[in-house]
Automatic annotation (TrEMBL):
Protein known as: Transcription regulator
Keywords: DNA-binding, Transcription, Transcription regulation
GO molecular function: DNA binding; DNA-binding transcription factor activity
HTH arsR-type domain ranges (all copies): 1-102
């Protein structure tokens, strides 16, 4: 990981809601409707569920998720008009390693 990418990730994580999203996505079954199975759960969580839990506008959540995906924190999978997000554990591990070596 280079300094530029680490800086972009740091910017994404400088917002409490984005950090919460990362926490929620770590255990999606517990954080998003634990009593009902999630459709396409292997691909992550639908934007709608994230937006409802965060209680922010759809446009704000979409901007957050897009920025997090661009810097590699999240992986997006699309099924028709629906977008699903999950954590990119490889990038997270590389970021933690980079930070611990600085």
């Amino acid at each position: 990981m280079d300094l530029k990418l680490a800086t972009e990730i740091g910017k994404c994580l400088s917002n409490q809601t984005r950090v919460k999203i990362m926490e929620w996505l770590k255990e999606p079954a517990l954080n998003f409707y634990p009593d009902e199975p999630l459709k396409h759960a292997q691909d992550g969580v639908c934007v709608t569920y994230i937006q409802e839990k965060a209680q922010l506008s759809q446009s704000t959540i979409s901007t957050y998720l897009t920025n997090m995906e661009k810097c590699g924190l999240l992986i997006i999978t699309r099924h028709g008009k629906w977008s699903y997000f999950k954590r990119n554990e490889d990038t997270i591990a590389n970021y933690c390693k980079f930070i611990s070596n600085q």
